Amino acid sequence: MTGHPRPTAPRSARPAGAHEPVTGRPRLLVLRALGLGDLLASVPALRGIRRAFPGHHVVLALPPALGEAALATGAVDDILPAQAPGRAVPTLDGWTGPPPDIAVDLHGNGPESRDALAALAPRRLLAHAQPDPALPAPPVWRPDQHERERWCDFLAAYGIPADPADLRLPPPDTPSPAPGAVVVHPGAEAASRRWPAERFADLVRRLRTAGHRVVVTGGPAEDALVLDVAARAGLPERDVLRGGLPFGELSALVAHAPLVVSGDTGPAHLAVAHATPSVTLFGPVSPNLWGPPGAAHHIALWKPGPPGDPHGDTPDPQLLRIGTDEAVTAALSLLRPVRAGAPARKGSDAGVPTAPA
């Protein structure tokens, strides 16, 4: 769902005042100030908006750390930095100049996000909450609908076609920091979506025993978790990618990986965006709502049960029902077997200290 690459300046970053039109084009503002996974799930909708309004300057309001990722979609001309704690609706105080010609609420279905956009007095506002009676009614909000399909159906109600399958990102220009390595990302924004560190470490050990190079990544605040998994797995220092990679490096790492293994978080969506094989461990939320599209190279592991809290403080019981054997089997099924007698991995003896049992 969500994810947090290290904050970097987007390649067209400018002061907030630069959001005033400089080309004479009318401006269209989209609000989706959430996480990386949320952004990538909205790519089909953003591209539908871009195609429907080719003469508009499209501005996306989202956390500044995601500016580079937003621009990489090719659907956005500019960003408006907007962020609030948790998943709250931010203020849009950075908007300057005339009101937006069109505003689109892709943040949620509550009045808070709709009101944040309405405060800018756009000529036309598309939102689930308190829809404009002069416009067609939006579809009924369905809690059982996949996130990509939800927003494409929302736009379709206003005559804006969008394809839920239109979610690929172009190949990144940045070189991968570990080309050809399996990427294991144990972190997630909420503890309810974090599979235990010891299980991730066991998976890493077994993939390495099968001859695969593995790197472990995490977000900017997840160094302790990354180091714990690495120590338990005996990973060499070069394969421990701490500190949170800038989006360009993370995108390149995933794009050039043979496999990504993670929970339901940003790198899982990035793997889908680059058609990289993936194994995603789901717990509180069904993959029917946030999972990858149906394809043989994406495996979603999930144990059906009562829905949980995707933002909870403890690992979800359904997530804990996924065993290491099941995850390893899924991962190996998507990897090419390593040829017997292949050269040993460089640096495999330079491991970080093993964690105590």
Can you give a write-up of this model?
With 357 residues, the protein is an alpha/beta fold. Helices cover 28% and strands 12% of the residues. A six-stranded parallel sheet has the order 8-7-6-9-10-11, with helices on both faces. Helix 9 links the parallel strand 9 and strand 10. The longest helix is centred in the middle third of the chain and has 13 residues.
Give me some keywords for this one.
alpha/beta; 11 strands; 2 domains; Rossmann fold; elongated; 12 helices; single chain; 5-stranded parallel beta sheet; disordered C terminus
Put the structure in a nutshell.
This protein has 357 residues and is of the alpha/beta class.
Low-confidence region ranges: 7-19, 344-357
The whole-number mean of residue pLDDT values reads 90
Sheet with most strands: strand arrangement: 8-7-6-9-10-11
Q: Please, how many domains?
A: 2
CATH class of the largest domain: Alpha Beta
CATH architecture of the largest domain: 3-Layer(aba) Sandwich
In CATH terms, what is the fold-level topology of the largest domain? Rossmann fold
Give the number of DSSP strands. 11
Instruction: Give me the Rg, rounded.
Output: 21 Å
> Residue share in helices?
25-40%
Count, helices: 12
Distance between the termini: 32 Å
Series of secondary-structure elements, N-terminal to C-terminal: EHHEHEEHEHEHEHEHEHEHEHH
Q: What's the name of the CATH homologous superfamily of the largest domain?
A: Glycogen Phosphorylase B
Biggest sheet character: 6 strands, parallel
Structural class: alpha/beta
The percent range for strand residues is 5-15%
Gross morphology: elongated
